[in-house]
Amino acid sequence: MKKDIESKTDIELLVNAFYEKVKADETIGYIFTDVVKVNWEKHLPVMYNFWENSLFYTGTYEGNPMEMHKHLHHAISLSAEHFKQWVLLFANTVDELFEGKTANLAKQRAISIATVMQIKILADRSAADKIF
Predict the structure, then answer these.
(1) Listed residue (86, 24, 17, 10) closest to 55, CA to CA
(2) Is 3 part of any domain?
């Protein structure tokens, strides 16, 4: 039996494994590696804080991911398929590493985040329906 997500160390493991999948992914990897050219040393700690706050309400995250993704959308035209793949990779990573209440919450939060971003960024309610 796998353990549940219980600590920041668990979140770091999840985020690191997730982004390794993202970097290699044909659908969304290029966004991170070629378009944004993510500085992983800066981005990963921000994502640790984001997910720690999302799951444990620590107050460790400060930022505006919606604005960042709106800007990105204007640069490359994000699609429902991009969001769907992000959720799939995230959920698969959670399932590979963890199980339990917080693991399920992490997957639910990922779906919620992707859905809200699609609605606000793509301005097309039907696009959000395609995530499922």
Answers:
(1) 10
(2) no
CATH number of the domain within which 49 lies: 1.10.490.10
Candidates 88, 102, 77; CA nearest to 25 is 88
Q: CA-CA distance, 72 to 36, in Å (whole number)?
A: 8
- What local confidence, expressed as pLDDT, does residue 132 receive? 47
Residue-level pLDDT at 122: 83
Other CB atoms within 10 Å distance of the CB of residue 112: 12
Distance between CA 34 and CA 23 in Å, rounded? Answer: 10
Q: Residue 4 corresponds to which tokens in the numbers above?
A: 């549940």
Structure tokens at 19: 């982004």
Domain of 89, in residue numbers:
8-129
